[in-house]
């Protein structure tokens, strides 16, 4: 029985299709199989902590854990050293402020209160500077690990210390601009609450405007710090660069950052809470005996919990921002090709002192 062409064959009792012609292609199961579809080999290529393609949320979270696991000394060590230096400076500032108040007998006076408030504002600003500096500096090892390198603390410091001045200038500029925009609205909202009545709604609306504006600005400026360190941008250039990379990606960037902030906040609360509970237990145990010997332990345990929480959560947030910056460049500029070239050179023994994107 001759083979039946599927293009003209019909079930028994059915009429053939009008105008049906034999198909030039062989029936299924006969002849040469079709060629496989072409796929991008870079999509499955993972020379470092990320695949060389646009990243998913799962890719970013996995890469953060992988980066810290492969180079804990770089992230945790640099965080510990930086915050230890901050605590020394903060302690010196605090002691100087207390000495001035004591020397001038300013306790309970307006002058003493002004010194205390000034000290708190100064320490808050320095804390923000340290956070911004670490967030920018960690973009360097994240890009190095993307091409298969494992940078050390020393290499990271050598490669990023020249960018500390622009990072500081960027933080101060954003802080001043944000304060100039938010303080008048905040004062108006407080005034509305003071007057009461229907103006309370106006005050709530002003607070909502401040929160929405701060959120929008934070997301649009999210890539400023990595741009300063990795791309060598100046202050204003980094701002323009961040606005360009987040254009059309606001909600995705916001969602990832929001998720990571929620996760790190939970982790920080768990770590800090555990040490605070331990301090409370020690305090209650000491209340039945000599509490003097246990007082340092009660005071140190909550502080140790805060330090450990910062040590764990800050690299996580900074790495997320750095990887979102890499992802935005992959999606808009084909940065995956640059990473592939760098990974190839690293695999051949190049860039032993650090890979700089061409």
Number of domains: 1
The global form is globular
Oligomer: single chain
Compute the gyration radius: what is it?
30 Å
Task: Indicate the proportion of strand residues.
Answer: under 5%
By DSSP (H or I, 4+ residues per run), the number of helices equals 12
Unreliable spans: 35-39
Structural class: mainly alpha
- What sequence of helices (H) and strands (E) makes up the elements? HHHHHHHHHHHH
Helix content: over 70%
TL;DR of this structure?
With about 350 residues, the chain is mainly alpha-helical.
Give the helices and strands, then pairings.
Layout: H1 57-70, H2 72-103, H3 110-137, H4 139-146, H5 153-160, H6 164-195, H7 199-220, H8 224-230, H9 235-246, H10 250-286, H11 295-333, H12 335-347
Helix pairs in contact: 1-2, 1-11, 2-3, 2-11, 3-6, 3-8, 3-11, 4-11, 6-7, 6-9, 8-9, 10-11
Could you list some keywords that capture this structure?
single chain, 358 residues, mainly alpha, 0% strand
Provide a descriptive summary of the structure in words:
- This protein has 358 residues and is an all-alpha fold.
- It has one domain (53-342).
- The protein contains 12 helices and no strands.
- The protein has helices at residues 57-70, 72-103, 110-137, 139-146, 153-160, 164-195, 199-220, 224-230, 235-246, 250-286, 295-333, 335-347.
- Helix 3 (110-137) crosses helix 6 (164-195), helix 3 (110-137) crosses helix 8 (224-230) and helix 8 packs across helix 9 (235-246).
- The chain is globular, with a radius of gyration of 30 Å.
- The chain starts with 56 loop residues before the first helix and ends in an 11-residue tail after the last helix.
- Mean pLDDT is 83; it is low at 35-39.
